[in-house]
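Notebook, bench 3.
Goal today: get a predicted structure for Sporulation protein YabP from Edaphobacillus lindanitolerans so we can plan the truncation constructs. The sequence was checked against the plasmid map this morning, with no discrepancies at the termini. Length recorded as 101 residues. Pasting the sequence as submitted so the record is complete.
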Amino acid sequence: MQFQQTDNPSPTYAIPSGDHVVTMRNRKRMDLTSVKTIDRFDQEEFLVRTSQGQLQIRGEELRIVHLDVDKGLLTLEGNVKTLHYDDEDGHSRNILTKLFG
């Protein structure tokens, strides 16, 4: 994935359209890109369909802070405990396999 620096003097980068990026801060705040749909959510679990498959996010006191359906952006807050991907074809892959495998 390549980032393109914007004309803005602050260190902000534009994410190429279609790239799926997950950013987590201290397991308390999570930003996701390329979100297609949110299949289900409550305070303990989110099922999010992304361009890279279905992502299960488990934790405590999870809540949506920001959702932009048109741009596919989602920001969550809460105590994030696990992330788990299922490929579009139904095969499971954990986050480490997703990142490094």
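The beta strands are 4-5, 13-14, 22-25, 29-32, 35-41, 45-50, 53-68, 73-86, 92-94. Helices lie at 95-100.
Flagging this for group meeting.
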